[in-house]
Structure formats: C-alpha cells, structure tokens
Design a protein that fits this description.
The complex is a heterodimer of chains A (about 260) and B (about 270). With about 260 residues, chain A is α/β, with parallel strands linked by helices. Chain A has helices at about 45-50, 75-85, 100-110, 115-130, 145-155, 175-190, 200-205, 225-230, 230-235, 240-250; strands spanning about 5-10, 20-30, 35-40, 60-65, 70, 85, 160-165, 195, 210-215, 220-225. In chain A, a hairpin with a 2-residue loop joins strand 4 (about 60-65) and strand 5 (about 70). A three-stranded antiparallel sheet of chain B has the order 1-3-2. Classes of the chains: A alpha/beta (about 260), B mainly alpha (about 270). The interface of A and B includes residues 55, 88, 92, 140 and 155 of A.
C-alpha cells in the first residue's frame, strides 16, 4: 500500500484554547482510495484537513506528502496546495468572486497558467461538476446545491491529486448528494485520492474503501469499512454503535 | 406588530440591492463592454451637471429611462421606483433651499405665509435654485441608475482593472460586495430566529434584539473573513485575487444612443 499523506505524532493547539485539536495524531492515508473520516464535532477532523493543505502549521510532529516532509517555507505551501485541494463545509466561506466563472478561474490563475489554459480548466471543471450553464451567474444567486458544486469545481480546476471535502454532503438534498457522489466516483476512476469527512455511516458503508475514526484529536481506528462496522468493541467505544443501531432499529435509544 | 427597526431597514435595503443586482445581470445589454455603458452615463452626467438647466435634467431623466427600458429591457416600473425613491430624498433636502422657516417675520422676501408661531417665506430666486438643484441631481441619478441597472459589479471591477485602478481597491470591492450578500443572508436568518422567540414583541425587546444582532453580526463577519482567508489560501492566494476577465462585445448602437442624448442635451441647453 502506497501512502499519500502521513501524519507522525502531530499536535496542534488553537490559540486561546485549553484542549488540543490534535494530540499525538498519527495516521497513514493510502493513495487512490475513497477515505471517510468519521468523528464527533470537535474531534479534530477539520484541523487534519487544514493540515493536509498546509493551512495550519503543527506545533509538534511532521506531515509527509508522498514521503516528503511538508515544509513551511515560502514555496512549499504553493506546491502542496496544487497537490491537495480542500472543499470547505460551507461553500459561502469559499466563494469570494462575483461570478461563478471567475471564482473557478481563481485557482488555475494562481498556478500561473495563461488565460487560455485557465479558461480550459474552468470549462473542464464546470463540466465535471455540471455547472457549465452557471458560469455567468453571480455566486450569491445560486442555490445551496449549486454553491457546493461550484466550490468543488473551483478546487478541481487546480487538478489536485488529493481532494479533501469537509462535510460537503451534510447540507445537501439527496439528489445533489447523488450528483456529488457521482463526481467523486469519476475522480476516483481517474486515480485521485478522496478524503471525505462525514457523520453518515451509510456513506461509509456504500462509498468508502478506507475509514478513519477520530476521537479527541487522535485516530482511534483506520482500516476497511467492514472491519469497523463488524468490530463491536470499536463501534461501542467510539459511540458509533448507537448511531448505526438507530439506523437499523437495533439498540436504538428510547428517545428515538 | 413589531416596531420598525434598524434590522428591518437593513433587510429592506438588502432586498433593493438584490433587485438591482438581478436586473444588472439579466438585461439585454449585459454583455456589452462596460466601458461603453459607463462612458455614456459619465458623459451624460457631466453635461447634465455643467449645463445646469432644468430642461436638460428632465431630458436626461427621459433619455436614461428610455434607454434602460427600451434598449436594455429593464422594466420601466423598476427604473421609475428607484428614481422616485431618490427623488423623494432630493425633494426633502431641497425644501430647505427653496423655503425658509423662521420664528421672526422675514424681511425682503416675495412670498410670506404665517403658520401659527412660524413664518414660512420664499423668493422666486430660491425656488429657481431649488428647481435647478432637483432636476440636475435627478438627471445625474438617472444616469447612474442606468449604469447600476445594466452593469453588474463584476463588469465595473473589470473596467477598473483596465483603467489601472489599484488592485487592492478592486479586490476589496469584490470581497465586500460578496460578503454583503452573505451577511444579509445571516442577518435575515438571525432576525427570523429572534422574531420566532418574540424578540421584536415590544420596543424594549426590539432595542435589545437589535443590539444583540449587531454584535453577533460583527462577530459573524469577523469569523467569516477568517474562514474566507483560509479558503483563499488553500487555492494559492498570493496577495491578489486573480480571475479571468469577462468577454464582452462592442455595440455601436450604444455609441449612436450616446450621440443622440448628448445632441439633445446641447439643443435643450441652447433653447433654454
């Protein structure tokens, strides 16, 4: 198994906080897989994502991308951000431009592509995310699902090897979810590594080929989805048994 | 009924911004080079200011309304309503120029009326000055409305880039414009949530809710700006918001319209 991202004893404490977002976090993520990252809110998943993209500098430990230690000099983040694209949970945090086409072109132009190449990238990404007809629309006039797909297109236009999506599916209707999962499927067939933060165990079961469970800033499980769902002790320890049981009606709390 | 409040006023102005923005994106001359549209409006506006004749101001209003409705396809009622809103503010401010109100009887004025303890007076010169002010300002406002209703900000920014306006200023305009809509959405949601918990059931509650809303919105704006910065950095932001320029076409009809408007303004000035 080739690893694309490796975290070695990484710790991170946000300024003004008392508990570590990541505490001795160690994990190796396999290349070309569909990875689901599970964990309660506040378990450190977003911090891991920001770390993947070099957006926050760890106070301890190292992170490697395809075996190379990620540095924090002036050039390294640029190289890393070309390789690892991140889609944020709320598309409104990501869309800055007044028009869809211009927003998608932001990443390619930052890679120093000329206008013609950037325009091609915009077209390709828009077609993949099914937003070609929205290119001239203002970003504030889009629906939630359209915004999510435009935000995804903005990242895919940079052609990253790894796509990281922070709970992208959580606020989408089932139709848009299917559409986004379809895009993920096509990206996976192209050999991309996909990392998706989710609370949805059905997505884990049906979509993921590798799953990581986080708790209090640490990875407590990393392996195949079936190994997790079949591991009663792990499911109970992480509290996932309650969620999974509620879905199937087994062991559901009385409240449900 | 909930009392009229600052948050409601902000929401109403937000709706107006949305309406103007919708026409700016959906009109028939949207794809015309913004330099043509802004150029036409600026020439017309400057002439309206320099020639300073009521007839020229009224003619400018007529022309701009016609161009926006017949040429660009903006509904006449929408243009009229926006102009009416501006006109009402203008009239209120011009009252102070055209009419004087004193507690003592004025001297050397042509028209004097007594209203209880107050003396209301005016002169033909003051009324004429008021008329000049209103028509000149309305003509200028109509020219600006033509730009606002036919040219979205993305095109204005693009034009600014071509004219060499500092990139930092244009980037700030772009982000502020975008955040304006995001924060208006936040404001709408927060206000609805407050209203659902009787936040505007009395004057006292309203004042408290507005205070809380303002402080929360400020924090929200700050947090959003931090998240936006992270999102921009993740896509390789390097001190400049680099985006592809839009593609426009040049429409000679706009130039022809410009010649017609300017000629008619000059003829009206000569005739006056």
């Amino acid at each position: 198994m080739t690893c694309i991202l490796e975290f070695d004893d990484v710790s991170y404490l946000y300024p003004g906080r008392e508990t570590f977002a990541l505490r001795g976090f160690t994990l190796a993520l396999p290349r070309g897989e569909r990875i689901a990252l599970l964990g309660r809110n506040g378990s450190g998943r977003t911090t891991v994502f920001l770390r993947c993209n070099g957006l926050c500098r760890p106070q301890a430990g190292v992170v490697r991308f395809v075996g190379n230690v990620i540095q924090h000099d002036r050039k390294s983040p640029r190289w890393l951000r070309q390789q690892v694209g991140i889609v944020f949970q709320n598309p409104d945090d990501q869309l800055f431009s007044t028009s869809v086409g211009q927003d998608i072109s932001f990443g390619p132009l930052n890679l120093d592509l000329d206008a013609a190449a950037a325009r091609r990238r915009v077209q390709e990404a828009a077609e993949m995310c099914e937003v070609s007809d929205l290119l001239d629309r203002p970003t504030h006039a889009l629906s939630g699902g359209e915004k999510a797909r435009v935000a995804l297109a903005g990242v895919l236009a940079m052609k990253p090897d790894v796509l990281v999506a922070d709970e992208l599916l959580s606020n989408l209707d089932p139709w848009v979810r299917l559409s986004v999962l379809g895009i993920f499927h096509r990206l996976h067939r192209q050999g991309k590594t996909l990392i998706l933060a989710t609370h949805d165990l059905e997505v884990v079961q049906s979509w993921a080929s590798f799953v990581v469970v986080m708790n209090a800033g640490q990875a407590v499980f990393a392996g195949a989805p079936d190994d997790l769902l079949g591991n009663e002790m792990m499911m109970a320890q992480t509290g996932l048994a309650t969620v999974w049981g509620a879905r199937s009606g087994v062991g559901a709390p009385e409240l449900l | 009924m909930a009392p009229f409040s600052a948050s409601r006023l902000a929401l109403i102005s937000g709706i107006a911004v949305h309406i103007i923005d919708r026409y700016a994106y959906a009109n028939r001359i949207r794809a015309v080079d913004p330099a043509y549209k802004v150029g036409l409006a600026l020439v017309v506006l400057i002439l309206c200011l320099v020639l300073d004749e009521p007839m020229v101001g009224l003619l400018t209003v007529g022309w701009m309304w016609s161009l926006a409705t017949l040429f660009a396809g903006v509904p006449g009622l929408a243009f009229g309503r926006i102009l009416l809103t501006e006109a009402s503010f203008l009239l209120l401010t011009t009252v102070g120029v055209a009419i004087s109100i004193n507690t003592k009887p004025p001297t050397a004025t042509d028209w004097i009326w007594r209203l209880g303890p107050l003396w209301v007076s005016s002169t033909p010169e003051a009324l004429n000055l008021g008329l000049h002010l209103v028509t000149r300002a309305l003509g200028s406002a109509a020219a600006m409305n033509f730009v606002a209703l036919t040219t979205p900000l993305v095109d204005i920014v693009e034009l600014g880039r071509r004219l060499g306006v500092p990139v930092l200023l244009l980037d700030m305009m772009t982000v502020m414009y975008r955040l304006n809509f995001v924060l208006l959405d936040s404001l709408d949601r927060m206000r609805t949530a407050q209203e659902g918990r009787l936040g505007y059931s009395s004057f006292r509650c309203s004042m408290r809710s507005i205070g809380l809303l303002a402080s929360r919105l400020f924090i929200d704006a700050f947090q959003r700006s931090q998240r936006l910065q992270k999102a921009l950095d993740s896509r390789g932001y390097d001190q400049e918001l680099r985006v592809l320029p839009s593609q426009y076409h040049r429409d000679p009809a706009i130039l022809l319209a410009g010649v017609l408007v300017v000629t008619s303004q000059l003829l009206a000035w000569r005739a006056a």
